[in-house]
Amino acid sequence: SSVKFRPNLLTFCPAPAQSAEIHTGAMFNKQTGFQSLMKDGGKHFSGVDETLIKNIEACKNLAQITKTSLGPYGMNKLIVNHLGQHFVTSDTNTMLTEMEVMHPAAKLIVMACKAQRQECGDATNLVVSFGGELLMRAEELLKEGIHAVDVLKGYELARNKTLEFIEPLKVWTCKDMRSTAELEKCVKTCIASKQLGFEAPLATLVAQACVQVMPSNPSKFDVDSVRVTKVQGGNPDSSFVVEGMAIARGPSGVETCKEKAKVAVYASGIESQSTETKGTVLLESAEQLQNYTKGEEQRMDEFIKSIKDAGVDVVISGGSISEIAGHFLNKYKIMVLKIVSKFELKRVCRTVGATSIIRTGPPLPEELGYVESIKVEEYASQKLTILKTRDAKIATIVLRSASPNVLDELERAVDNAVNVVRCVAKDPHFLPGAGATEIELAHQLQQFGATVPGLDQYAVLKFAEALEVVPKILAENSGHNHTDAITLLYSEHQQGKKNIGIDVEGGSIVLDAAENGILDHAESKKWAIRFALDAVLTVLHVDQIIMAKQAGGPGAPQGGGGGRDAD
Q1: CB-based contacts of 224: which residues, under 8 Å, 6+ apart?
Q2: Is the pTM of this model over 0.70?
């Protein structure tokens, strides 16, 4: 029977029973537990086996990749990134950046590596290899039934004692930051780990460049003051240092050499300015057309003449140079150089002491810079414009080699070395290298671990074992039996020979690292241990992984490829 309501009153119609069931089903779906809280497609992992062990496994795999690249005889990796670029490198930071690691736990190790890179610029491989080794030892303890909290406590205690034990191991201090010989000694080990055989000439180049730009207060040394220009052809021994800048391109005009010249830098290019609004010019005769172009030529002639009248012999442009401007620059015998990169233009301004001009008009006297000489030289059919100044605030190392891949590796080695100089300017202390410091720290930690009460003791001893990873890998990569090498090192260190490390070149297994000039920067080593342990503790603190459904986007193209550029 139907129910009648009075008009203009709100009527209530009960929803069908079927609709109520659908609504309830959406709220209380068939999934139970944590999964019922999430959207379809979300993932949730919990428990030691599902989270901790899987996270440790991912970090171990990452460390396994970088381990083989540690030391002078480390292997290279051939990486093809998402853009199809090829990298042949043993540099850990480059490897991890181009690999684009996606696993959330492994990303923590990658972030620790990047933090080490920003802080010290060196010892990035130590962070990843040591972090992976710590997690591998932690996995052994977890499988034996020791709780993750006990592992965390033991590792933190071991880290604090390790940083204490490092202090007495310092063997050398750089006393004079303006001494080329001392700076060579500082960077030689760092370069040898990347470019064994070229460490002597490259260390000399880096030391010369750094001494040239060293400020009165060495702690304010700026790594951006030492630039690298790569010229393909020749060999690394023919590399050299320029007091100023070396730009890998020739001039845009006919002038190729100027001495003691004033320099004007135009950031916006040298061409006739176009109006902001569009206009139409109606030309009714050939005479009007000739007069129109003559007016443009006359204005450009006046502009270039005003630059010449200001005493300028060199013009550097950050934008395009019109043909008519090029004609008048050649007419007034002004050398013109085009630099497309705004960062490079900024460095040129620093080098010559000029102010970048963004208007079309004659430069003011205070906006001009000065060069002792600017000339074009040719190396292996590559034109190089060399700017030399009196008080060089920038030095450039011109690297020569046969192939682009070798040049890139040389550049990375130089970059690491310059970062070491920056660290030495703040803390000049060095430790013995070649794995000597790590094995001595392991030896002292094992003695300390025997006195630690409770379950923490196991973690402290595992931390000491993890420190053996550096001499172990150095021995393996140089062809020695790592078991024999570690045993021999322990026997030497028990006799009080704290500087004994792995001999990667000679016939014997061990050598005195301090006597052979194999030195590691102390503060960089400390930061590496801190960053590695911070990442490890973060991984061990995780007991659940919750992954929301990935946001939708355009599908990947058929046949793979795409990557970030497909979005």
Answers
A1: 347
A2: yes
